[in-house]
């Protein structure tokens, strides 16, 4: 196997010199593959993405140990826009588009690589082909888009930057199953046609395990499990914690789940 | 007229059309008519009207400068009068102390302006909104203090007299000559702004105003572009101040009170945020408003009795107009303009089509 596109080694991230969010997290993303990162709230998924894209500085966090290498160069604690220029584009979780600009303007604004205006235009058009709906919404102000349309627009503007690695924070958050299916199909298409590697952070195991080639499970800032998706899918813990199935493979009934929570509260 | 049936409205069908400055034939004719009218006006106007026009040109340069910073890059500044004072005093000091000609003093004023802009843009990297406004206010007081100190130390207690600039041995004087100099400069600044905003820099500013975090995620250097916005805006403001100094032939700190900064903020609000046309319309409106009020008061019976009130009425009317605009027409004069233009463009229909079409 050739050298991976992104390598994160024994990463430690500390917020405000006090709260350790990640500890000893290692991760590698091969070219042209989709890597899924699973975990519950507070597991450190978003912190990991922010550390890679350089945005952890906003909340006064620092990478205190370990390293992040992109195409063989260290990028830990780098400036976000320089990391973006180097080829890593982030689709953030919440505020992800420019609400007061139109869809068309949203796509012209991102600073991509240096190139001629014609080339740039061609790429903008090529990106819109992945999301035909955006072409219809060209002159709509982005603040009036629905959640799914915003997600499409955010992914499109990230692609305009011509990234080699796309980081997506919570693809499925707050979206309906139909929209999620559509977006998942787009990601597979983008990966296939552009050869872009994708890191997908998800709470929904169904989405992450469906899309990804390789998966990591984070818990309390540590990697607790990683492996090929096929292997993860059949792993007993994943089955139980993320799919709600018993080790025997049967779906837990609602009554059992309630029972489980109650007993935790009483004894624990 | 074209023979084909045409949809009501103007539709762009290619990306290149989005970028074009003049979109339709009508616009071209309107533009040509405007230029002819502006070129012909001074030969018909009285000296008083010429002076008014020159004031509008000066105000337009200053308002365009502030519009770049506030209306496009989204950074609030109350130091605008301070920057104009810096430009005017650079001209005054250089021409007094060194007898420097205008082709040295004007670039020097621009340089001083952009340096000050870079320094006072620094807080914008940390501060936002109201806090930034207060920190730029410091700039204003600092410059005005330094200017006042210079005046009193050198014994120009009422102000510095500036000799008119000489081009090829001829001293520039008279409203007509200044009309063309200021008009052409304002036109040049307008073109510069238009082109700057169509470039990558302009798009970066729009992104920063919309959302700094997203801008950074999409590869835009937020810190650098913010400083650039401050520098360009301050450069133009200092230039406007320098021209003001030459035009009046006199510089004193009294001309650059905090009220001037507020007037400029009013220009871009009344004109319409985020529009260069708005800056020009706002400059026109705010400059002419006091004269309009004065003329209106004069038509009242017993006008002499109100003469003492004029100053107070001016201030009050100014505040009232600002409040009315913020409440009733947040898009400013340019919002009204667009509504009228859209009415004619869509005629005979009332609404633009639901899908596609122009904004």
What would your notes on this structure say?
- The complex is a heterodimer of chains A (268) and B (359).
- Chain A is an alpha/beta fold and 268 residues long.
- Chain A has one domain: Rossmann fold (3-Layer(aba) Sandwich), CATH 3.40.50.
- Chain A is built from 11 helices and 10 strands.
- Chain A starts with 5 loop residues before the first strand and ends with a helix.
- Chain B is mainly alpha-helical.
- Chain B has a domain of 243 residues: ABC transporter involved in vitamin B12 uptake, BtuC.
- Chain B is 72% helix and 2% strand.
- In chain B, the strands form 2 sheets. Chain B has a two-stranded antiparallel ribbon with strand order 1-4. Chain B has a two-stranded antiparallel ribbon with strand order 2-3.
- Classes of the chains: A alpha/beta (268), B mainly alpha (359).
- Chains A and B meet through α2, α3, α4 and α6 of A and α8 and α9 of B.
């Amino acid at each position: 196997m050739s050298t991976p596109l992104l390598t994160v080694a024994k990463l430690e991230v500390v917020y405000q010199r006090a709260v350790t969010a990640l500890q000893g997290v290692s991760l590698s993303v091969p070219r042209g593959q989709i890597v899924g990162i699973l975990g519950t709230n507070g597991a450190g998924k978003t912190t990991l993405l922010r550390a890679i894209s350089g945005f952890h500085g906003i909340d006064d966090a620092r990478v205190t140990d370990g390293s992040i290498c992109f195409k063989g160069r260290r990028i830990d604690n780098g400036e976000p826009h320089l990391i973006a220029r180097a080829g890593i584009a982030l689709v953030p979780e919440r505020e992800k588009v420019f609400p007061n600009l139109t869809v068309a303007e949203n796509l012209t604004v991102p600073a991509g690589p240096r190139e001629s205006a014609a080339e740039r235009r061609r790429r903008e058009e090529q990106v819109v082909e992945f999301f035909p709906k955006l072409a219809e919404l060209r002159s709509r102000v982005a603040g009036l888009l629905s959640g799914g349309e915003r997600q499409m627009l955010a992914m499109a503007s990230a692609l305009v930057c011509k990234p080699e690695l796309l980081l997506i924070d919570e693809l499925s958050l707050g979206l309906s199953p139909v929209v999620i299916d559509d977006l998942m199909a787009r990601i597979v298409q983008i990966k296939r046609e552009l050869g872009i590697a994708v890191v997908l952070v998800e709470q929904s195991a169904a989405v992450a395990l469906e899309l990804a080639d390789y998966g990591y499970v984070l818990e309390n800032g540590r990697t607790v499990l990683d492996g090929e998706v096929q292997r993860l899918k059949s792993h007993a813990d994943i089955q139980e914690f993320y799919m709600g199935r018993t080790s025997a493979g049967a779906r837990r009934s609602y009554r059992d789940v309630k029972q489980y929570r109650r007993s935790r509260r009483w004894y624990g | 007229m074209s023979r084909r049936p045409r949809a009501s409205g103007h539709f762009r069908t290619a990306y290149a059309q989005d970028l074009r400055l003049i979109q339709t034939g009508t616009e071209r004719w309107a533009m040509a008519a405007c230029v002819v009218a502006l070129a012909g006006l001074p030969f018909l106007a009285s000296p008083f009207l010429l002076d008014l026009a020159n004031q509008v040109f000066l105000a337009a340069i200053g308002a365009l400068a502030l519009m770049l910073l506030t209306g496009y890059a989204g950074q609030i500044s109350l130091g605008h009068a301070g920057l104009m004072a810096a430009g005017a005093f650079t001209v005054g000091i250089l021409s007094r102390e060194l007898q420097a000609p205008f082709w040295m003093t004007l670039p020097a004023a621009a340089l001083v302006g952009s340096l000050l802009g870079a320094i006072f843009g620094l807080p914008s990297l940390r501060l936002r909104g109201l806090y930034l406004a207060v920190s730029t206010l410091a700039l204003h007081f600092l410059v005005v203090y330094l200017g006042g100190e210079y005046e009193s130390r050198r014994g120009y207690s009422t102000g510095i007299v500036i000799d008119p600039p000489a081009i090829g041995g001829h001293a520039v004087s008279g409203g007509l000559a200044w009309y063309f100099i200021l008009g052409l400069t304002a036109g040049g600044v307008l073109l510069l702004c238009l082109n700057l905003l169509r470039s990558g820099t302009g798009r970066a500013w729009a992104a920063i105003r919309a959302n700094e975090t997203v801008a950074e995620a999409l590869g835009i250097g937020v810190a650098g572009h913010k400083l650039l916005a401050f520098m360009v805006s301050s450069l133009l403001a200092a230039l406007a101040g320098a021209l003001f100094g030459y035009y009046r032939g006199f510089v004193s700190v009294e001309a650059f009170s905090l009220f001037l900064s507020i007037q400029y903020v009013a220009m871009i609000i009344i004109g319409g945020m985020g529009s260069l046309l708005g800056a020009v319309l706002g400059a026109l409106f705010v400059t002419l408003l006091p004269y309009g009020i004065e003329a209106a008061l004069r038509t009242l019976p017993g006008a002499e009795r109100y003469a003492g009130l004029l100053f107070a009425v001016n201030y009050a009317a100014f505040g009232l107009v600002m409040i009315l605009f913020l409440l009733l027409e947040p898009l400013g004069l340019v919002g009204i303009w667009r509504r009228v233009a859209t009415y004619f463009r869509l005629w005979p229909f009332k609404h633009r089509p639901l899908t596609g079409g122009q904004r």
